[in-house]
Amino acid sequence: MKIDVIGDVHGCLDELKDLFEALGYTLQEGIYIHPDRRIPVFVGDITDRGPNSLAVMELVYDMVIVHKKAKYVPGNHCNKLYRFFLGNKVQQTHGLETTVAEYEALPTRKQKFIQKKFITLYEQAPLYIEIPEANAIVAHAGIREDLIGRNDKKVKTFVLYGDISGEFHPDGRPVRRDWAKHYQGDRWIVYGHTPVREPRIKNKTINIDTGCVFGNRLTAFRLPEEETMAVPSKQPLVEEKFTTFD
């Protein structure tokens, strides 16, 4: 199996279309298909902050649920939107407010369709995907080797939010441990969640969230080729959103 793992899209529909075209996919019956039957794998956080969150969600829903031509794991933004659609009280901050604004601008009938689609997409998604044919595991914020194979609450927190310490930076961001530098496994861990200017490879892990919604690039990681491909963002650059590692 040949796969293309796609980094955090965050509502950047135009860039996602550009990336599919750069990867050799063509638009057929409203979804993107590769002539070599490559499988796109979305690493989560497909909505929020960007200009076209609902359109991205509907495309992912069609590819994953309707046509079964792609795979998807949820991110923390997906989890928050899911809880919003369930009617839970969630703070409309950190980008959720942009998706909610799109949603609330729709007619009531269309809102119900959108709500049902996203709930279905989220509830049918695994916390992380093991892909033996590609010797890879895809998880939104990564996964420690000792957690692979588990699906408990600790694993859910890790794959959605990373290896959080419970402490916070002065600007309110949670302090996350650098789990990737301790990874010793022989399978690729492909993840996103933390925006970086360039894909970060550490041991056999790769962070492909290159901050498209913050003006950098949208990146895919191709297996078994072990190659990255990226397209430029059309969004304004927000320099302070990018993390640097030692």
From TrEMBL:
User: Keyword Hydrolase on this protein?
Assistant: yes
Give the residue range of the signal peptide.
none
Q: Which residues form the Calcineurin-like phosphoesterase domain?
A: 1-196
Q: What is this protein called?
A: Bis(5'-nucleosyl)-tetraphosphatase PrpE [asymmetrical]
Catalytic activity from the UniProt record: P(1),P(4)-bis(5'-guanosyl) tetraphosphate + H2O = GMP + GTP + 2 H(+)
Mind listing the GO molecular function terms for this protein? bis(5'-nucleosyl)-tetraphosphatase (asymmetrical) activity; GTP binding; nickel cation binding; phosphatase activity
One GO CC term, this protein: cytoplasm
Known CDD domains for this protein?
Answer: MPP_Prp_like (cd07423)
UniProt superkingdom = Bacteria
Give the E.C. number(s): 3.6.1.17
Primary enzyme class: hydrolase
**What SUPFAM superfamilies is this protein classified in?**
Metallo-dependent phosphatases (SSF56300)
Q: Which family does the entry's similarity section mention?
A: Belongs to the PrpE family.
| Required co-factors | Ni(2+)
UniProt source species: Oceanobacillus bengalensis
InterPro entries with a match to the protein in the record: Ap4A_hydrolase (IPR050126), Bis(5'-nucleosyl)-tetraP_PrpE (IPR023937), Calcineurin-like_PHP (IPR004843), Metallo-depent_PP-like (IPR029052), MPP_PrpE-like (IPR041780), Ser/Thr-sp_prot-phosphatase (IPR006186)
Outline what the protein does.
Asymmetrically hydrolyzes Ap4p to yield AMP and ATP.
